[in-house]
Amino acid sequence: MKNISLRKATIKDILVVVEFDYNLDQVEHIKLKREEKITKAILNNQCFIILENNLSVGFVIFDYRFFDQGWIELIIIGDAYRGKGIGEQAIDLICKKSKTDKVFTSTNRSNMPMQKVLTKSGFSFAGKLIGLDEGDPELFYFKKRKNQS
Length: 149
Ligand SMILES: CC(C)(COP(=O)(O)OP(=O)(O)OC[C@H]1O[C@@H](n2cnc3c(N)ncnc32)[C@H](O)[C@@H]1OP(=O)(O)O)[C@@H](O)C(=O)NCCC(=O)NCCS
Prior knowledge:
Elements: E1 4-8, H1 14-24, H2 26-31, H3 34-43, E2 47-52, E3 55-66, E4 69-77, H4 86-97, E5 102-108, H5 112-120, E6 124-129, E7 138-144
Parallel strand pairs: 4-5
Antiparallel strand pairs: 1-2, 2-3, 3-4, 5-7, 6-7
Helix pairs in contact: 1-3
The protein binds coenzyme A.
């Protein structure tokens, strides 16, 4: 089992976080003004750096904007670190941080790795929303937490 932990991002982390997002999809990063979104999340204490030992391997944005429920807005694991169970552990850790008993998130139907990691982490399918991305519905998932921390 890898030594994965979360650390609240500070404004000093902005370049690292922006780089993970930019590398994922440069066009979306610019079109959707993701740097602004990331900066706002950091300033609102909603962005967490995912660490493997002391190395930054990704980030997760978590808030309560979805009907006041814990909500994973975005998780990105750096390219080189995917498929090693880090996403699963990071999702488990963020769920433990939630103040609500249920945590929700969503992903595109085309995003098989995210659906796989959510199923591994004990999330259940909650419903499908069409109309956001043409031909690629948004799938919603939720998990009931067992342990508070
Ligand atoms: C989705 C994501 C966070 C998962 O993180 P991760 O560290 O790779 O997750 P894990 O290693 O815990 O599990 C990923 C699972 O998907 C599988 N997987 C990886 N690539 C895949 C692919 N192209 N198609 C199907 N499954 C795939 C892995 O094999 C693994 O399942 P397994 O353990 O049964 O083998 C990561 O892939 C990522 O950052 N993707 C890009 C950003 C993104 O799409 N974020 C989610 C949008 S909200």
